[in-house]
Amino acid sequence: MITTLLTGLLNMNHLLPHLIAQYGSLVYVGLFALIFIETGLVIFPFLPGDSILFLSGSIAAMSTHSLNYITLIVLLSIAAIAGDSLNFELGHHFGGHLSSPKWQRWIKPKYLAEAELFFKKYGNWAIFLGRFIPIIRTFVPFTAGISKMHYRQFILYNVIGGITWVSIAVLSGYFFGNIPIIKAHFELIMLAIVLISLIPMMVMLLKRTRKGSDSNAEE
């Protein structure tokens, strides 16, 4: 199911223009829902928000389509901020229950552990920095809620991070998404965006693994 969903999302460069032609402005609702779900529901960390934002920006640059990049930035920033706020509240009120073995099929302990490590390492800035790392992006606000972080502190970094993430991704697509070489290899570019954005998490995992190996060697 997840593989099918990801395959469909990676083919959005063909699907999204068709949806715009058929449904017009209603596509904004779908994009809003997708970003809100990725950031707001801890069981959907695999949705490629970066790629969708980039694609939306590139389509907005085309005169043949009705998407507006300013509207995208405003609406999807609201979706990202609202999503993280929901995720924070889920962690704050239900984090203990949702972290139990019963939920491990949906909320991977490995992802939650990495988010907790990321949050401990960067403190409040993890809310901002986590926006740019898939999976971590979904789990950090949940972890912040579990840690009982003050909501006033959380919402500040949430708003700054949400607006910055959406603006950078949409504007990158708007200005660079229709360059011929990028347009000709759009599927590969979208896949590359996902892989590149995963690099910080991979580096963190390698450091943690190496640290664990060093500790075992000393023992």
TrEMBL record:
A Pfam family that the UniProt record links to this protein: VTT_dom
Span of domain VTT: 47-174
Keyword vocabulary terms for this entry: Cell membrane, Membrane, Transmembrane, Transmembrane helix
Gene Ontology CC terms, in alphabetical order: plasma membrane
Residue ranges of the TM segments: 20-47, 59-82, 122-142, 154-176, 188-206
Membrane topology value: Multi-pass membrane protein
InterPro entries: DedA-like (IPR032818), VTT_dom (IPR032816)
Keyword Membrane: yes
Subcellular location: Cell membrane
Keyword Transferase appears in the UniProt entry: no
Family: Belongs to the DedA family.
Record-linked PANTHER family: INNER MEMBRANE PROTEIN DEDA-RELATED, TRANSMEMBRANE PROTEIN
Identification of the protein by name: DedA protein
Organism: Pediococcus damnosus
